[in-house]
Amino acid sequence: MTIDKSWTTIRKRSSSSEFWNGLQNFLQMAKPFVNERGFIKCPCNRCLNNASHQLQDLESHIFRNGFMFGYNQWIYHGEPASANAGTTVPGPSGGIYERDEMFDVLDDIISDDVERDLVGGQSSNEQYDDLFAALRSELYPGVSSFSSLNFLVKLMHLKVLNKWTNKSFDELLKLLKLAFPKIELVESHYKAKKLMTKMGLGYRSIHVCKNDCTLFWKENSLKDSCPICSESRWKLQSCKQSGKNVPHKVLRYFPMGPRLKRLFVTLKTAKLMRWHSTGKSKDNDVMRHPVDGKTWQEFDKRHPQFAGDVRNVRLGLAVDGFNPFRNMSLSYSMWHVVLTTYNLPPWICMKAEYLMLTLLIPGPHSPGKDMNVFLRPLIDELNELWVHGLETRDAAYENSVFRMRAALLWTFNDFPARSSLSGWSGQGYRACHTCNEDTPSMQVIGKTAYFGHHRFLPTNHHWGSNLQFDGRTERKRPPRRFSTTDILEQFRRVKTGIPGKHPNCGGVKWKIGDNELNWRKKSIFYELHTGLISS
Fold this sequence. Notes:
single chain, alpha+beta, two-stranded antiparallel ribbon, 19 strands
């Protein structure tokens, strides 16, 4: 059946009955294809099928803005897709060029915002107007293969890959402007970054006390001095010189909620987020993914409601320090906190592009015992995702909306990082957090040595009779396993220390009593509503 589309090109819409009748027929045709919430893609000249609205809003959008030029096959509104038909979009001069790949990117971003109302006759998504303007503009007159936005995104990607400085990027933009006067491009890195932030996945800058006592966040966000050590929040000398408030330290926090949502609004990754329920090993003796392990299975038993929806997210956390200047002669240590998503298959979940940087902890010294201070935003968000979840669109299931929840199952770290995270010191006679107070150790030439490894072997193993280490046979059983009750009882004997490194506050050293074992603090992970399963 041939569909009459001639009405879409009528310019005088307000006085044309043909346009109005064609629009009503189009809405009737599209009505069966709305999603569960009553939303469908809007083909007006402003939304370009990148935003979704209810049918009554579609009517006002198309009548006010006109029908999208180049949308010749209504694949989103009931017309069967043809094998030879490609989706085209309008060029700024009225021509048609093939659909820009950035349309799919913006579609993932904008259609994730399921609540779209008309405010004063305007779309509530005006924050995306600049992105659409850059997307609809040609990079250069006559060049239809690149939109201005597409070129800028690729240029920013090259900057990151090749470690260009901001200054060199600005100079490159100036050169392009000089060589191609009619090029549609931003003038500076600042403006490029400002435009890119509208695509989401940005970060928050949280000021930190110079002594790591606290974050100037939430209830402390408006304070000018630390509530613990009373030190100023600002570098006073820098403030006098520049006339601006310059903080001593800045914690970069990358919220994980929007990043997890992005995995579901993109069709390819949305399908992969279910892999753990369909791709796990059928052989009980083979473990190729954490889903095959006892920890995952134990967690599912404890939280059957969470396990009931396979789209709920399981996370692992890794922490480590690094020198950002690649100069080992310079003593400077920054720390990063990275999350990985274990819903994904094993050949993907450890790839760099699927690892999520959540915290960038400033130097110059490692956080040490004050790691709890820096982890506060992450723990709060994890608890929010566990209790309330986050409304998310699932592209793999007819764009349905569900409430995504997330839980942290594991931490991965080396010995120094483990001490900072767990609160159990990795030094002294009881350095082993597994053996706890039963750690076997002894002094050897001024250093502490740990022995008793043969205890983990079967009792009849011949190495148990080996005398080469200290002339004694090993007949002890493996160390006892401490329960949660035992650990919490140990915490009741630990002094509550003051955070920070100020010499008159948190930096004061106190003697650890024998009853406190090797505990230096209670880890912030005990505040997780799920409880940490393994580390």
